Amino acid sequence: AARRAVAGVEALRARAVVATLGLVVVLALEALLALAFDASGLAAARAPRGLAEQGIGVALLAWLFALPFLVRRHAVALP
User: The organism sits in which domain of life (predicted)?
Assistant: First the structure.
C-alpha cells in the first residue's frame, strides 16, 4: 500500500511538472508575441483586450493546466 501511495505521489508530481511547463511555455510565447507586436507597431493599432477576452484567456490557461490531471490513468495506447 505504501508503494502504491508513493507511486501515486510521483505520478501527481510528474503531472504537475508537465502542467507547469505547459503554462510557462504558453506565457513565454505570449510575452514574445507581445514584444513582436510592440516592435512592429501592431500593438498600437490593436484595441486593448476587453474583460471578456481576458476571462476566456484565463479559462483556457486553467484548462491547459488541468489537462495533465484529467488524463485517464489506465488508458490503452493505440497501435
Answer: Bacteria
